[in-house]
Amino acid sequence: MSAQDLITLPRLGAPTVSSDGRLAVYTVTETDPTSYARTGVPYLLDLTREGVQPVRLDFGGPVSGLSFGPDDQLYFLSNRKPTASGDERMRVWRAGVTPAGRVGTPTLVSSFDTAVDGFAVSPKGDKLAVWAEVARGCPQFGCETDGTAHLTGPGDGRLYQGDEGFVRHWDSWETPGTVSRVFVFDLAQGRTTGNGMAVDGPVGAGGPSGDTPTKPFGGNEDIAWAPDGSGLYFVAREADGNEPASTNLDIWFSDLSGRAPVNLTAANQAYDALPTPSPNGQYLAYAAMARPTYEADRMVVMLRDVKTGVVTPLTQDFDRSFGTLAWTPDSRYLIATAQDVLDTPAFRIDPQTGAIDRLDLMAGNEAHIANVMPLVDDRLLFTRDSIAAPSELFLSEGYGQAVPLTQVATQRIGALAPVEVERFSFKGANGDTVWGQITKLANQSGPMPAILYVHGGPQGSFNDGWSTRWNPRVVASQGYAVISVDFHGSTGYGQAFTDSIRRDWGGKPLEDLKKGLAAALELDPQIDGTRACAMGASYGGYMMNWIAGQWPDRFDCLVQHDGLFDMRSFYYATEELWFPRWDFGGTYAEQSALYEKWNPVNHVDKWQTPMLVITGEKDFRVPYTQGLQSFTALQERNIPSQLLVFPNENHWVLNAKNSRQWHDTVFAWLDRWLKPEAKLSE
């Protein structure tokens, strides 16, 4: 498998299903192998006809955000011109579709002056919620003041006040006074009417001041209609001076009266999200963390009685963190997913008893299950991916073993050289059990150089899942054995294991990596430990800088992507301050000794390992100056090094051409130091 294969493999999107559970529609993103242009292509699949092939849908132009409405019309976003003289602003459209895949003529649903970022149709089809960047003081869906409050003139300088929240976040500068806001419009004969109503209420009335959906990664999961259409649940955070240090997201409810919404989770100063009302309207399920300012606390499923307001923690005694929620159509069960060791399986939760059953939906490992949609008659529609293969759509009957419904990438991946993925465990720091995986070509003979993969987060995991960026299979296909270790701090092993990295960034994790590499080499004699490189991004990049000073004689090379180099300068330049404050027990001023204890810059005098440094200029989480500092340190010590800078990438490399360049550069660097012929030329 080559980098070209990885980049151009079709990518399956999340499905939407008709109200009767018969028809599923999903999007496949296709990438042109020459221009690398990406196009989303919609398909329809009849779930009631066994063996039927998906049908490509033609909407007469590009579409996104496809969603079945209660009328079983397909609603979607498109920037097509409504008239010959119109503009290409993003609007909401709809079209009918037959089981055979014939698409009716798309008709315009909204015609706002403001471009729409997202939408949700009410359960009765009589209202439409839309959201976009709108000034907080604007009473309607768009004003001339949108995005201009901070432009004080006469120059182009942006003026930020200290009480207005983020200055910049993830990969973009903020526009004070303008946030993502939700408005609800009446629908009449499929068209929006009136001026709409802001669900966050009038300014100063007690509603939230921040973004809905939440930024940078919030989406439709932050917004949910009450089953009877009487109101809207939504997630928001306060855009105030405390925003960079706060993880306090709340769930609000608007009764669509125009008054201020009600904060349903005001008592919890930590994270509340995923509002999921039961179809019978009796309950609101959601996920909550308990500890403020901690972004990786355990996500407990909460159940709120809509009538009484009584809240019950359903999964308080279950030591896993739930990341998705969905009700069965009869409101009998919640279906949720959570990381569990190296898998992300689905669980069935009984809201009456709190009983939790881990579902066995796949033969072998569950790997990574996502986008779960419970259907009538105890059916589950979901996607599943693994290290070996990207996402495909599956259907389970009666919570039993699922059957595949799509072959979006299966045929192409099947024609490539297969890989073996072996899970292993060992005694890591403190004698705790630590898990890892070895990925290598299945039919390769002879010794293989070792690549130690270090995940980011650090509260994360290199679990058994597909990745379009840090993909073990594509690295293994270059003739390497990829070893990934879920060190102390990783997720999916209980909250105490995740918490254990706090105040110990360079301690137990490094010990686990050392012991994990040794365990993998002992387990698989085909891996040549005398030829080894390590690579990682974000916290994994930090670990490359840390390894350079703490384990300087172990690796032939390092690949450091968006890694932290100087904890002091990082602290004062990053945007989400809750992250370092939690992991290091306070601000830099309060805990400077601890920040310096685990600071890679203090050990540059020991650096000797060749390093490739990669950074994105739009990375505001770990600003590109951290990479520049690493490169300067390498150059000053005459250590072989390279610096790859992407002007338009953030913390991730997303552009297809940039991804190809990233892989080509990384593979050339690994080959230079690990392939025998390359070593001879040095």
Condensed summary:
With 682 residues, the chain is an alpha+beta fold. Strands 32-33-35-34-36-37-38-39 form an eight-stranded mixed β-sheet, with helices on both faces. Strands 1, 2, 3, 4 and 5 form a five-stranded antiparallel β-sheet that branches.
Helix content: 10-25%
> What is the CATH third-level topology name of the domain at 418-681?
Rossmann fold
Widest β-sheet, arrangement of strands: 32-33-35-34-36-37-38-39
General shape: globular
**How many extended strands?**
39
Strand residues, percent:
25-35%
Low-pLDDT ranges: none
Tell me the radius of gyration: 25 Å
Features:
Rossmann fold, 682 residues, 15% helix, alpha+beta
Description of the molecule:
The protein is built from twelve helices and 39 strands. It has 682 residues and is α+β, with helices and mostly antiparallel strands. The strands form nine sheets. Strands 32-33-35-34-36-37-38-39 form an eight-stranded mixed beta sheet, sandwiched between helices. Strands 1, 2, 3, 4 and 5 form a five-stranded antiparallel beta sheet that branches. It has a domain at 418-681: Alpha/Beta hydrolase fold, catalytic domain (Rossmann fold). The longest helix is centred in the last third of the chain and has 19 residues, at 656-674. Helix content is 15%, strand content 31%.
Helix-strand layout with pairing:
Blueprint (H helix, E strand, L loop, with lengths): L2 H6 L2 E2 L3 E2 L5 E9 L6 E9 L8 E2 L7 E5 L5 E5 L12 E5 L11 E2 L9 E4 L5 E9 L32 E2 L2 E2 L4 E11 L2 E8 L24 E3 L6 E5 L13 E5 L7 E2 L8 E6 L5 E6 L11 E6 L5 E3 L8 E6 L6 E5 L7 E4 L6 E3 L9 E8 L3 E7 L6 E6 L5 E2 L5 H5 L4 E9 L5 E9 L6 E7 L17 H5 L4 E6 L8 H5 L8 H16 L3 E11 L1 H12 L6 E5 L5 H5 L6 H6 L8 H6 L13 E6 L8 H12 L4 E6 L9 H19 L1 H6 L1
Parallel strand pairs: 34-35, 34-36, 36-37, 37-38, 38-39
Antiparallel strand pairs: 1-3, 2-3, 3-4, 4-5, 6-7, 7-8, 8-9, 10-11, 11-14, 12-13, 14-15, 16-17, 17-18, 18-19, 20-21, 21-22, 22-23, 24-25, 25-26, 26-27, 28-29, 29-30, 30-31, 32-33, 33-35
